[in-house]
UniProtKB/TrEMBL annotation:
PANTHER family given in the database record: DNA POLYMERASE SUBUNIT GAMMA-2, MITOCHONDRIAL, GLYCYL-TRNA SYNTHETASE/DNA POLYMERASE SUBUNIT GAMMA-2
HAMAP family: Gly_tRNA_synth_B
One cellular component (GO) term of this entry: cytoplasm
A GO molecular-function descriptor: ATP binding
Entry-linked InterPro entries: aa-tRNA-synt_IIb (IPR002314), aa-tRNA-synth_II (IPR006195), aa-tRNA-synth_II/BPL/LPL (IPR045864), Anticodon-bd (IPR004154), Anticodon-bd_dom_sf (IPR036621), Gly-tRNA_synthase/POLG2 (IPR027031), Gly_tRNA_ligase_bac (IPR022961), GlyRS-like_core (IPR033731)
GO biological process, one term: glycyl-tRNA aminoacylation
One Pfam family this sequence matches: HGTP_anticodon
Enzyme class: ligase
Protein function: Catalyzes the attachment of glycine to tRNA(Gly).
Name of this protein: Glycine--tRNA ligase
Length: 503
């Protein structure tokens, strides 16, 4: 089946990266010092878009579900947390160096790319067999076997074409820093590699203080840090990034249903936000992490292919049991609901966990890639017909950095004052800007480039009858309406309700 092509599909990552910089969405970190690899800063428009996405996720979790509450845990945690979670021993990536190019790669990524090649060439079965074999070898920690697979598959360095590989080694991805100011012997303190553990160690605090009954969830948005070996593809893979995670605590035996429920709910979220169904897919994990009983990724088709945006994991009671064992503090819940088979309460148990974990930065990148549109516009008729290129960001109005721009047509005749009045009247409701420089066409273009859904023009008629034109970003159509109708009109379009209604 052929897929419809959309402008976003033909957009190159490099165009999106350039656009993101030029229009204040994302900058390379410490750029004046040539930049710190795999670290990025969000600019004035980027931070608004990212905050809107985070708020949307937060409200979709905590406001729409009576049984999901939030926390904000610290980045630093007792180092034993990471022993219990398995990160000290097992949060490794298999790395391999190429002796000719001196470049370092993730062995699993090289193999996955080879499998994707088979799939592209019309042999998905061979691709699937390859990733399954890799999964088997990695689960058995057979690193020599992984290297052999790379050799057998004739995988070469993508840059130099060389096949001179070192052995495969495991590399721990956690960053650490000095713990104690007084004790130089103190154990290192890690920068958390995931936000989940801040939730697990607070499980009982939250359950008791918020009087939660199972099943219930704890949501959190926060920074996480990973010393990624290969950090390419812009903000897709960074060393400092942000996660939006929700751990859902359930009665053992019910985790299968909850896993399916959250899997479907999370996919609906992305579709409601405007990511097309054809560019989203589920990808079951070939190699399960040490904690997982089942795991699936929601992948989005970025300009560089289908890649993970969110993970949904059925973690069993692994984490709480580990913390219970190491801390010697019971991590149990007393369930007084009646078990129909025994006629008695379910009693004490360590709950099972289903987790949804999405990277705020990857959601941001997917949103930006999807929004980036280039079109050719034809204007005029006959001999006078001209064509020009238009670039605009077709962001969902609910997440657009600026909701409306107000333009006085000219800088005189009371139009600037009228524009200011409209601004003052609506600024408690929406993030707005007033623009009075340059011709109207140029001002429209500037707003298109940052994805502002509406431009309100104050003209001569406004001074007579208090109506304005509202120009729509996507269609470029204009509608005339009374100033008094603006609040409801814009409010309807930018409300989170438009997304929530589809969940
Ligand atoms: P990958 O396989 O791409 O390394 P992962 O499976 O290790 O990702 P998880 O541990 O499941 O990722 O983390 C949950 C989410 O956090 C991911 O789906 C992704 O959106 C985000 N994430 C993980 N690592 C990074 C990173 N280095 N930069 C940006 N986002 C990340």
């Amino acid at each position: 089946m052929s897929k419809p092509t959309t402008p976003a599909e033909s957009a190159q990552l490099k165009d999106i990266v350039a656009h993101a910089k030029e229009y204040g969405f994302v900058f390379q970190s410490s750029e004046i010092y040539d930049g710190l690899a795999a670290v990025y800063d969000y600019g004035p428009n980027g931070v608004e878009l990212k905050n809107n996405l985070k708020r949307l996720w937060w409200e979709a979790m905590t406001q729409l579900h009576g049984n999901v509450v939030g926390i904000d845990a610290a980045i630093f945690m007792d180092p034993r947390t990471w022993e219990a979670s398995g990160h000290v021993a097992g949060f490794n990536d298999p790395l391999i160096d190429n002796l000719d190019s001196k470049k370092r790669y993730r062995a699993d990524v090289l193999i996955e790319e080879k499998a994707a090649e088979y799939e592209k060439a019309g042999d998905p079965a061979r691709g699937a067999a390859l990733t399954a074999e890799m999964g088997r070898l990695l689960t058995a920690n057979d690193l020599a076997g992984v290297k052999q697979l790379i050799i057998d598959e004739k995988i070469v360095d993508p840059l130099s074409g060389s096949s001179k590989w070192t052995d495969v080694r495991q590399f721990n991805l956690m960053f650490s820093t000095q713990g104690s100011a007084v004790d130089s012997e103190a154990a290192p303190v890690y920068l958390r590699p995931e936000t989940a553990q801040g939730i697990f160690v607070n499980f009982l605090n939250v359950q008791k203080s918020a009087r939660m009954k199972i099943p219930f969830g704890i949501a959190q948005i926060g920074k996480a840090f990973r010393n990624e070996i290969v950090a390419r593809q812009f903000i897709f893979r960074m060393r400092e990034f942000e996660q939006m995670e929700m751990q859902f605590f359930v009665r053992p035996g019910t985790e299968g249903e909850w896993y399916d429920t959250w899997k479907a709910a999370r996919r609906r979220f992305h579709e409601a936000l405007g990511l097309p169904a054809a560019k989203l897919r589920f990808h079951d994990h070939d190699k399960l992490a040490h904690y997982a009983k089942a795991a699936v990724d929601i992948e989005y088709e970025f300009p560089f292919g289908f890649k993970e945006m969110e993970g949904i994991h059925s973690r069993g009671d692994f984490d709480l049991t580990q913390h219970q064992n190491l801390s010697r503090k019971k991590q149990q819940y007393f369930d007084n609901d009646i078990d129909e088979t025994t006629g008695k309460p379910y009693g004490n148990y360590v709950p099972y966990v289903v987790e949804t974990s999405v990277g705020a930065d990857r959601l941001f990148l997917a949103t930006l890639c999807e929004a980036f549109q280039e079109e050719t516009i034809t204007e005029g008729e006959g001999e006078a017909q001209t064509t020009k290129q238009r670039t605009f960001l077709k962001l969902h109005p609910a997440v657009a950095p600026i909701k409306a721009a107000i333009f006085p047509l000219v800088r005189k005749d009371g139009m600037p004052e009228k524009a200011q009045q409209i601004f003052d009247d609506l600024r408690f409701d929406f993030r707005l800007v007033i623009e009075d420089k340059d011709a109207i066409g140029k001002r429209y273009t500037r707003q298109d480039l940052i994805g502002t859904p509406f431009c309100i023009v104050v003209d001569g008629q406004t001074l007579e009858d208090d109506t304005v034109t509202v120009r729509h970003r996507d269609t470029r159509e204009q509608t005339r309406m009374p100033i008094s109708a603006l609040r409801a009109y814009i409010g309807e379009a930018v409300s989170f309700k438009t997304v929530f209604a589809k969940l």
